[in-house]
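Below is how a single chain appears once it has passed through the pipeline. First comes the sequence as given, then the structure the pipeline wrote out for it. We keep one example in the README because the format questions we get most often are answered faster by looking than by reading.
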Amino acid sequence: MKPIRVHGLPLHPVFVHFPVAAWTVATGLALLAPLEIAKEAPRLALYANAFGLLAGVVAMTAGFLELVSLPSDKTLRDAIARHMTLAVSAWFAYLVMWVLQMKSLAFAAAVAGMIGFVLLLAAGHAGAQIVYRHGFPGRQESQ
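Resulting structure:
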């Protein structure tokens, strides 16, 4: 089965920028929320986080669809498993943050956001290893 591509490009790298941007903004605003410097920070952090959660589902779905073209290389499979584990863990950390935001627990939400952000950075690094160290998806998969 061939992976779903648009103009030969995989969809996951296109969609992944949206949750990353939204969660970066959500984390920054959540860090401001307990300080009560900006009155709108908690509400805006909640909206950014909610968008990140939805966009994350789209990005993860696109990533899962890429698995159909996965070569049988064990090292590559291990790298992808590491990336997926970190990305899904980040998503759940931001889900916890959202629940805490809904309960107006600003400090706890900020802590969850920082945990999510660290996991997000690790997932991004693991994803970069898949591309730059293992060459997946490469030109052969996109043709």
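The chain has one domain: 5-142.

See the next section for the split statistics.
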